[in-house]
From TrEMBL:
Fe/B12 periplasmic-binding domain sequence ranges: 3-181
Keywords: Receptor, Signal
PANTHER family: PERIPLASMIC BINDING PROTEIN, VITAMIN B12-BINDING PROTEIN
Organism expressing this protein natively: Bdellovibrio svalbardensis
Top-level taxon of origin: Bacteria
Protein name: Helical backbone metal receptor
Lineage: Bacteria, Pseudomonadati, Bdellovibrionota, Bdellovibrionia, Bdellovibrionales
Stored Gene3D superfamilies: Nitrogenase molybdenum iron protein domain
Amino acid sequence: MRVVSMVPSWTETLLKAGVNVVGRTRYCIHPPKLITNIPIVGGTKDVSWDLVADLKPDLVLLDQEENPLEMAEECPVPYFATHVNSLESLQKELVRLGEHFENAHLLELSVQCLDILEAPTPKWDSKKIPGFMEWVKMPTGSAHKVVYLIWRKPWMAASKETYIGSVLKKLGAEIVEFPEGEKYPVLEIEDYPEALFLYSSEPYPFAKKISDLKSLGVDGAIVNGESYSWFGERSIEFLKNELLKSR
């Protein structure tokens, strides 16, 4: 089956599962050695259907959180849409994909995801942050609530209603409460003086702004954004390793 994947996380996961991915987005950068010769047909929010048609795909893979509804409505070939907004939904979607592609690797990943969901939740330690890359300001205590930042100007966070929030919860973090329904709320850092800020390495390049972040004087660290947000193969491996450490 020839597949065009418009979801970076799924592109990586399908390629590692041996699925024939013939088209991708410009953000599908993993695994580097396997994506090199796969044509780019757009981004996660835009697509050239002419380029897709040239590839003669049997299926276009979409996700409700990653791609706009218009992409599904305008898709000229059959599509398969997932909806991943938590570890629980990831497990279910891996089963759906595994059955659809009759792929043992994807079904095995669904079992691994179920094992993660059933594993004991570790105690969060603000001085030993999973996916840690660099300190902005090391905290003096360990009972911080967490704010996971994905953007600046304006500051935007990922709430507990997102996949990132689900990963943080599984790792034992207590996430600052935001108004219900706000998946990616805009906020002011000074409103959370006792929070531990996790600055994601993507989509905003916080790691390149470390000097500016240090000047804010708030507890926080740069973390690997791919580990927290790339659902599928990458975050499953990340969580397996982190949960194994805690045992």
